[in-house]
Amino acid sequence: MNAFLPSLLGGMLIGASAVMLLLLNGRIAGISGIVGRLVQGVGLTTNLAFVLGLPLGPLAYLLVFGSWPVVQITAGWRLLIVAGLLVGFGSRMGSGCTSGHGVLGLARLSPRSMVAVATFLTAGVSTVAILRGLGL
Prior knowledge:
By secondary structure, the chain is an all-alpha fold. The chain has helices at 5-25, 31-40, 44-53, 56-65, 77-93, 98-107, 111-133.
C-alpha cells in the first residue's frame, strides 16, 4: 500500500463532507463554528451528527486499512492544554478555525480566509522555530 493513500483518502473525505454541508445546509464546515452552535443549541441534529462523526474517523480507518492510525504525541500535557486553549482563543478571535478557513474559505477564494490561513501558517512556523530554539 502506498504511504500517501490514507492521507489522500482522508483529504477526499474531508473535502466531500465540507462540500456536502455547504451545498445541503449552506453552512461552512468549520469545527469551531459547529461546536459553538452545538453548545448554543442551534441546529442540534446536523451539528451533533458532524461532531459525533469526528471520533468515528479512526474507526473508519481501522475498517479500511486493518489497523489503527499511528499517532505519536511527544509534547507533555501542560503544553497540549495551553496549545489547545490558544487555538480555541485564536479561532474565536479569527472568526473561524483552520478547517473553515483552510478547506472552504480558500476554495471559495475568500480574502479573509487567505489572510487567516497565512496568519495560521506564520504563527505555526514561528512557534515551532521558537520552541526548537529553546530546546523544547
